[in-house]
Structures are given as C-alpha cells and as structure tokens.
TrEMBL record, chain A:
PANTHER family from the UniProt entry: BOLA-LIKE PROTEIN 2 (PTHR12735:SF27), BOLA-LIKE PROTEIN-RELATED (PTHR12735)
Record family assignment: Belongs to the BolA/IbaG family.
The protein's name: BolA-like protein 2
Lineage: Eukaryota, Metazoa, Chordata, Craniata, Vertebrata
Signal peptide residues on this chain, from the entry's feature table: none
One GO-annotated biological process of the protein: intracellular iron ion homeostasis
Any GO MF annotation of the entry: 2 iron, 2 sulfur cluster binding
UniProtKB/TrEMBL annotation, chain B:
Keywords noted in UniProt: 2Fe-2S, Iron, Iron-sulfur, Metal-binding, Redox-active center
Domain Glutaredoxin span(s) in chain numbering: 55-120
CDD domains assigned to the protein according to its UniProt record, in alphabetical order: GRX_PICOT_like
Molecular function terms from GO: 2 iron, 2 sulfur cluster binding; metal ion binding
Organism per entry: Scomber scombrus
GO annotations of cellular component type: mitochondrial matrix
Xref: PANTHER family: GLUTAREDOXIN FAMILY MEMBER, GLUTAREDOXIN-RELATED PROTEIN 5, MITOCHONDRIAL
NCBIfam families (alphabetical): Grx4 family monothiol glutaredoxin
Protein name according to UniProt: Glutaredoxin-related protein 5, mitochondrial
Keyword Lipid metabolism carried by entry: no
C-alpha cells in the first residue's frame, strides 16, 4: 500500500475525528517519503502535546513505517480558530 | 573504510549461513531467541542511558555535525538555551540503537529528547516548547538556567 496525502488525511479524519487536516507532501525536499501534517481535533482537548502526538503516531503507525520524515502540529478547534485569526 | 566494507561482507556471510541452517530445523529458533535476549538487554541499557544525564538526545549525527535537519533543529534549540552539556547518541552509528530507542520510547522518529529520564518528545515538540516558553521552565526543573533568560535580563 502506497502512502498518499489523501490516505493520511482520510485516516486522521476518521480515527481522530479531526475537523481539519492539512497534509503537505514534503518528499521533494528530502530523499524519501516525507509529510507535514496539521491536525485539528476536539479529541486533543485537555491533552498535553506529547499525548496528542502519540495519538497521531498511533493512528498512522502502519503508514509511519513507510514514511521517512514526519512533522506534526496538533491543535484543538479552539486553538485553531485562535491561530487563524492571528 | 576497508574495515567497514569487510564488516559488511562478514555480516552478509553470517546472514547467509543462518539462512542455510534453517531447513535443518534445530537452529531455527536460535536466531530469534538471541535477538529477543539482546533486545531485552538493550531496553534495560536504554533505561540506564536516559537516566545517566539530565539531558539526553538520540539523534542522527553529532551535535557538531548533525546529519538531519530535525536533529540539527534540536541541537540549535538547546544551544540557544545555553544547554551544551548533554549526552548525544548518534543512532546512525548503531542500527540496533536506532531501532531500539524507537521501541523504548514508543516513538517512531529520530531525534528523541529526554529530560531527567523522562521522554520529552521529538523535534516538533521541543520546537513548540521553545516557542511557548515551556522549555525555559522545564530546564529550570532540571536546575539549568536557560541562556535566553540571561539574555532577557541583560536587555532590560
């Protein structure tokens, strides 16, 4: 199974109930499959950063085996609204 | 360099030998069993390694010569805060460590940062902690005064 940006987005929306996901394929800048994601989910509410990142890592555990570099940003809907208005 | 090549060749040879002994039956279990044992030892070693120093970084390359942008970012952030005295382990020099630390931390990527034996996170997390000020507080808990605090005082 080839990992694609669409696949990553769909999975995060489905499994983490993400209300907004940006997936950037940064592979052209690097030597192998690389992605940068922004995940906005109410499930992150009240959870520290490390735990949020672990949730994303768990959700994409299979995909991460194929991915060389992975950057992530995890926000609650509230944080996302705040960031957008800045 | 020659040594490296030779080591590679001998590795291949050993691999082939194991493969050939498999059909014989008796030694089929020996390789996985040894692997499990080595891996248990390594997980124990990692437990010691992360506690030995206040700040521990598992990275690609060395602080003087990082071999990956994300590892470099971690080195630069620590440098900005005046943290020079930390243990850095180069996972590129040790494939077992590279895999072992991922299992140990239950974290899929390198670099990985530990404070006082506790897993802090990777590059993204350290960067966000740097940006939101948490890093200064976390360093204080370790008894390390961030150099950024000194810089702030001087500018006042």
């Amino acid at each position: 199974m080839a990992v694609t940006a669409d696949h990553i987005r769909d999975k995060l929306i489905k499994e983490l109930a993400a209300v907004h996901v940006d997936v950037e394929d940064t592979s052209p800048n690097r030597c192998a499959a690389s992605y940068k994601v922004l995940v906005v989910s109410p499930q992150f509410e009240g959870k520290p950063l490390l735990q949020r990142h672990r949730m994303v890592n768990t959700c994409l555990a299979e995909e991460l085996k194929e991915i060389h570099a992975f950057e992530q940003k995890t926000l609650t809907p509230e944080q996302w609204e705040k960031q957008k208005s800045q | 360099m020659n040594g490296l090549i030779r080591a590679g060749v001998s590795c291949l040879r050993t691999g082939a030998a194991h493969y050939l002994t498999r059909p014989a039956g008796g030694r089929v279990l020996s390789a996985p069993a040894r692997f499990l044992c080595a891996s248990a030892d390594q997980q124990k070693d990692l437990g010691t390694m992360v506690k030995k120093d206040k700040v521990v970084v598992f990275m690609k390359g060395t602080p003087a010569q990082p071999m990956c942008g994300f590892s470099n970012a971690v080195v630069q952030i620590l440098r900005m805060h005046g943290v020079d005295n930390y243990a850095a382990y180069n996972v590129l020099e040790d494939q077992d460590l590279r895999q072992g630390v991922k299992e140990f931390s239950n974290w899929p990527t390198i670099p990985q940062v530990y404070f006082n034996g506790e897993f802090v996170g990777g590059c993204d997390i350290l960067l966000q902690m740097h940006q939101n000020g948490d890093l200064v507080d976390e360093l204080k808990k370790l008894g390390i005064e961030s150099a950024l605090l000194d810089a702030e005082k001087e500018s006042k």
